[in-house]
Amino acid sequence: MERIGLTVTLRDLTGKCPNKRLRKAGRIPAVLYGKEMKDAVSLSLDKKELDKVLHTGAGGNVLVDLNMEGKKRTAMFKEIVHHPLKETIEHVDLVEVLMDKPIMVSIPVHVVGKAAGLAFGGIIQQEARKLRIECLPAAIPDAINADVTLLGIGHSLHVKDLVLPEGVSVVDDMGMTVVSVVAPTVEVAPKTAEEVDAELAKSFEVKEEAGKKEEGKEEKKK
User: Fold this and answer.
1) Distance of alpha carbon 208 from its chain centroid, rounded?
2) In this structure, are 121 and 194 located in the same domain?
3) How many angstroms separate the Cα of 178 from the Cα of each of 107, 133, 156?
4) In Å, how far from its chain's centre is CA 23?
5) What is the DSSP track for 178-191?
6) Total structural domains in the chain?
7) Are residues 148 and 214 in the same domain?
8) Is 183 left (phi over 0), alpha (psi -120 to 50) or beta?
9) How far apart are CA 159 and CA 194, in angstroms?
10) pLDDT tens-digit profile of 5-62?
């Protein structure tokens, strides 16, 4: 699990106008929460430093050692709010983590290996792209690998089949399908207007011919 230091500043003023001034100054308003904390703490983060942290390989699942004007706390990102149009970061929520207590996070699933069924035209179909896991903060992996090497057409890999790092357990249903190898589907090209008209005409001719045969049978009976 990647661990990065981040210097933050305590802020007394909150609200729309003070937050707007912070953003103009290149800082992002943030709040730190925690089960062991009596009250949430209002902070501001340097935008450039924050961007560096978020662009690590672990993305949002990174341990952040906060230096709050001499006080040290370890946290993770709980929510990152973006502007609906500009897509810039508007606000950040952090949650304190204690290194000796397990936490639950969602991590990506990476498909690895070449499935045996691909040689026969099979197609990889990933059902789960993220899994919820529980472990100590220092043991959080960047991703869980789903090895599909032995999968033939019609075979699936479930949560219970995954090889997990030591100390990591999956919170999701163990029977949930993670990835499958499915048979190729034959694409049927859409029919042109001419082809549709030709089929309708043929169908009409068949019905007309059947009608004439029925009339002939009735005449013979008479």
Assistant:
1) 58
2) no
3) 13, 14, 7
4) 29
5) EEEEEPPPPPPPPP
6) 3
7) no
8) beta
9) 50
10) 888 888 877 778 888 888 888 899 999 998 888 888 899 998 888 888 787 655 567 8
